[in-house]
Amino acid sequence: MSTLIQLILSGILVGSVYALMSIGLTLIFGVLRIVNFAHGEFLMIAMYGAWAFTHLFGLNPYIAAVAIVPAMFLFGAVVYWLVINPALDKPHLVVVFATMALSIFLQNAALMAMTADLRDIPPIFNRSIVIGSIHLKVELLLGFAITLLCTFALQWMIRKTYLGKAIRATVQDGEAAMLMGIPVPRIFLITFAGGSALVGLAACVMVPLFSVFPSVGLNFVLIAFVIVVLGGMGSIEGALIGGICVGVVQSLSSYYVAPAFGQMFFFILFLLVMIFRPNGLLGQQGAATIGMNE
Amino acid sequence: MRLVFRSCAFVASFLLALTFGAQAQEPIKIGVLLPFTGPLAKNGIENWEAMQIARDMINERGGVNGRKIEYVQGDATNPNAAISETERLITKDGVKITTGSFASPIAIAVSQAAERHGVFHWETTGAAEIITRRGFKYTFQVGAPARKYGQAAVDIVLDDLAKRLKKPAADVKLALLWENRAFGKSVGDGIRTYSQAKGIKLVYDEGYDQTATDMTPIVQKLKDVAPDVLIAISFPNDAILFQRKAKELDFNVAAFIGVSAGYSAPDLRDSIGDSVAGIFVADFPPKVNEGVLKPAVKEVAREFYKRYEAKLKRAPAGHAAAGFSAVWALFTEVLPKAKTYEPDELREIALKLDLPEGSLVNGSGIKFTNFDWPDDPKDAGQNLRASIGVWQWTKTGNEQVFPPELATHEPAMVPLPNWSNR
Question: Which end of chain B has the lower number of beta carbons within 10 A, N or C?
């Protein structure tokens, strides 16, 4: 029994970290309706940033978020202007290939700058929290808390603030929004940069848990795509639930079936959801967008 | 007029002599196929650093038969890239000798492309058994085949660790964890067969995907079976994830044996700190007891280690020593005997090699199979004298601990202290 509880709790905790890493992707997808294939590389860069910050200044990676999140916002803005904006009014494939090219470029740039060495930070908390025979890693518990906070804050922002309303208006009808005086291009820019900033936050949570290396993004980007689609493309709380589902399914199937099939099972879950709820767990029919999901 | 004619002839013959002279001095081009970028780049570059040192050392000694060695690089990031890069080096650069390629899936691809073009492939550290079992004529695998890694890991348990754990060898609870790609599976299969033949039953035997991001289920299951010894075949990232998870969930074993790759990567220490000390690694020896080396080899070994440490500010991993040993053998045992440097000639020379153990820097000898190995008559080009052993991470570096003849130190920290005391 304690094994089952351990597996479920671990699955929820690690799943929430996956969710945090996917929220940026779902936000960008929901508003700009583009898939950022370089999402994993954004994560990689932010993780390097968090690592460097911790490594150079001897600071806690959670404090590094104060610098990494704005830095990733800027990075996102620059990428938006250089790569995304010029491709937005072109056929959809252009954005796909542009972001893919960006992904390969960033990976290899990182390899040149940082070499293929794995980078790690020393453990922050030396002991796990032990309750009976259940072990919980403090870093994962913190990650879980940050993910919850972040999800609720983002929900509130989208529902209540002027910026949130402008974002929703843009999603519902870009042209009408523009006629109402909403600066749509700027909303796009802010959303893309904001999505990148969220990746920055995820990176600070992930650096104590995972090694950083140039291709680290590849290990996570597939999970992020599954989570985004599973949760209902563009839905933020959907991403949270999707992430936790993936974490738990992976954890249980790896234990009870075989570790090699952990990924297979969450893809089976993914396929089942696609068959029976084609718009994802929390998505509504006919709209893969944030505005419609509210 | 005659004078003009003569001087023309003179100039012409002089020019001709110059071109001939230049031709004799033309470097020997060798295609180096390694993952220089991408997820496998870590060990690929470890190999490359060592291979560059070998090239510099041979060129400083005047090259091979007066010709310098020149490398042409091909970036074999994955099997597909490996094939196209090999094809490029062969067709565009006219390379007739290839070497590399570190990882088994890459080695399989590179040797296939080389064989198709009749190019001589000298594999440094690829290990999967299939590499030399496809009836290829021009593929020579200087490093040990996958089964030997596993055998070394099982042998140290039976011959040494069991005694230290004060248990009869047959009662040692042995667990096996393997990453499920070419190398991990090949080694895992070898360990399963070998331990069965030795009368040991595995209490746990599972494969996992190298890109796994959560090791909780694996560690939890291992905790449930509570093995005495765990043999794990991992790559660097998953090895680190596993060790961290083992610490998080307080999973302890009396002895931990990693097989090559992840557990031999020098940055394991940077990642998991001092808790690396005590872990055994079945692998190419990074540095063997000098006593087993031939006197001339000893000198070369010293120079290699000195240069490597000066260049990278740390001791080489087993991959570096193996990469160096393999290309050094190519430069000093194969190429000097060649006249045409054509693959057919090189093949004949390689097959005639009969070097005892201790002939290469990492303690290996060379004797290739040629469809004549009793255990598998389809095997050709596999070096039967490649050294493999077990070394151990220590507080400050590493020591070769097994087999006793290659060892520089006795196994220490058996049983391994619990996480709370590490």
Answer: N
Q: What does pTM read for this prediction?
A: 0.79
Question: Would you place residue A44 in the very low, low, confident or very high pLDDT band (cuts 50, 70, 90)?
Answer: very high
Alpha carbon distance B31, B18 (integer Å): 27
A262 close to B (CB below 8 A):
yes
Is the minimum CB–CB distance between B375 and chain A shorter than 8 Å?
Answer: no
Residues of B in contact with A105 (CB under 8 A): none
Determine the average pLDDT of the residues in A209-221.
Answer: 90
Residue A194 in tokens: 């904001």
Contact flag B37-A108 (C-beta cutoff 8 Å):
yes
* Residues B222 and B154 grouped into a single domain: yes
User: pLDDT at residue A118 above 90?
Assistant: no
Structural domains of chain A, count: 1
- Residue A230's domain comprises 2-293
Task: Give the span between the Cα atoms of A40 and A44, in whole angstroms.
Answer: 6
Q: Between residues A275 and B50, which one has the greater pLDDT?
A: B50
Residue with tokens 């091909």: B74
Task: Compute CA distances B221 → B12, B154, B186, whole Å.
Answer: 80, 22, 23
Q: Does residue B378 sit in the same domain as residue B414?
A: no
Interface of A with B in 27-46 (CB under 8 A): none
Per-residue pLDDT of A171-181, as tens digits, reads 888 889 989 99
Element (H, E) at A254: helix A236-256
Classify residue B10: in a domain, yes or no. no
Q: Which residues does chain B have with pLDDT short of 70?
A: 1-24
The C-alpha atoms of residue B178 and residue B262 are separated, in whole angstroms, by 11
* Contact residues, chain B, for A207 at CB < 8 Å: none
Residue numbers of the domain that contains B344: 23-144+291-387
| Chain B contact for A255 (CB, 8 A cutoff) | yes
Query: Is residue B170 domain-shared with residue B117, that is, in the same domain?
Result: no
- Please tell me whether residues B131 and B243 are part of one structural domain: no
The mean pLDDT of A252-257, rounded to a whole number, is: 90
Report the number of distinct structural domains present in chain B.
Answer: 2
Share of chain A above pLDDT 90, in %: 56
Cβ contact A196:A38 at 8 Å: no
pLDDT of residue A143: 94
Residues of B in contact with A223 (CB under 8 A): 213
Same domain, B340 and B317: yes
Q: What is the pLDDT of residue B95?
A: 96
What stretch of H or E contains B43?
A: helix B41-60
Q: What is the ipTM of this complex?
A: 0.84
| Whether residues B275 and B320 fall in one domain | no
CB contact under 8 A, B250 and A118: no
CB B400 within 8 A of CB B287: yes
Do the domain assignments include residue B237?
A: yes
Residue at B17 is within a domain: no
Asked if B170 and B271 sit in the same domain, the reply is: yes
Strands laid side by side in the B380-383 sheet: B69-75, B28-34, B97-100, B120-123, B139-141, B380-383, B368-370
Q: Express the helix, strand and coil content of chain A in percent, nearest 5 each.
A: 75, 5, 20
Does some domain include residue B7?
A: no
Q: What is the pLDDT of residue A293?
A: 45
Q: Which two tokens stand for residue B203?
A: 């209490």
Instruction: Write the CATH number for A135.
Output: 1.10.3470
Which CATH number do you get for residue B329?
Answer: 3.40.50.2300
